[in-house]
Amino acid sequence: METTTFLTGQFLLAMPGIGDPRFDQAVIAVCAHDEKGAIGIGVGAQIAGLGLHDVLEQVNIAPGDTPNAPIHFGGPVETRRGFVLHSRDWSGQDTIDVAGKWALSGTLDALRAIAEGRGPTQWLVALGYAGWSAGQLDAEMTRHGWLNVSDDAGMLFETEAAQRWTRGFNAAGIDPRLLGTESGHA
User: Fold this and answer.
1) How far apart are the first and last CA of the chain?
2) 121 belongs to a structural domain
3) 176 CB contacts (<8 Å, ≥6 apart)?
4) How many CB atoms lie within 10 A of CB 183?
5) How many Cα atoms sit within 13 Å of 181 on the Cβ side?
6) Ramachandran region, residue 116 (left: φ > 0; alpha: ψ -120 to 50; beta: rest)
7) What letter would DSSP give residue 176?
């Protein structure tokens, strides 16, 4: 049986001392990873002062009864591009299933469906994404910086953004308070 090292459907947790302030305590939901590269959506930080109603207004969608949920910092690439991570009970024209755990949509039809009350039962919205070219994430995983953990959709939909980093380490059996800020040297 062939084993895969691809991380689709897992979460990347930034290790203390990752060296890039944009990723301090970052939690990234890996939505696609293969030999061509990877894409993930940050779910560990929210954008201060920006809510779903603001985003809907910018794209001329009436919010209806939709809650003014916070918007997540999805990553440093294309920070004006929106993504919806959501439960698998809804699918639109560009929806991709992420390892049978959750789904990812990147077009306005997902936002319209949410605003009209006919969208997925669970969702979060992010602006931007984290992307890696072919082999780049694989190489990063061999150095100090990221820990990949497996968790279910509860990480996204049942855990507050500020608690996801700690939850991820706990799922891996690690107390994040005990982590150092650099890797060992031989």
Assistant:
1) 35
2) yes
3) 16, 165, 166, 169, 170
4) 10
5) 5
6) alpha
7) G
Helices (H), 96-152: 108-115, 136-140
pTM for this model (two decimals): 0.91
As for how many domains the chain has, the answer is 1
The amino acid sitting at 61 is I
CA distance 55 to 68: 10
CA distance 24 to 13: 9
153 in Cβ contact with 87 (< 8 Å):
yes
The pLDDT tens digits for 51-83 are 999 999 999 999 999 999 999 999 999 999 999
Residue 186 lies in a domain: no
* Rounded Cα gap, residues 123 and 177, in angstroms: 30
Contact call for residues 33 and 141 (beta carbons, < 8 A): no
Residue 23 DSSP one-character state = G
In a domain, 119, yes or no: yes
CB 153 within 8 A of CB 43: no
Residue type, 105: S
Q: Is 33 domain-assigned?
A: yes
Q: How far apart are CA 23 and CA 18, in angstroms?
A: 7
pLDDT in tens, 77-117: 999 999 999 999 999 989 999 999 999 999 899 999 999 99
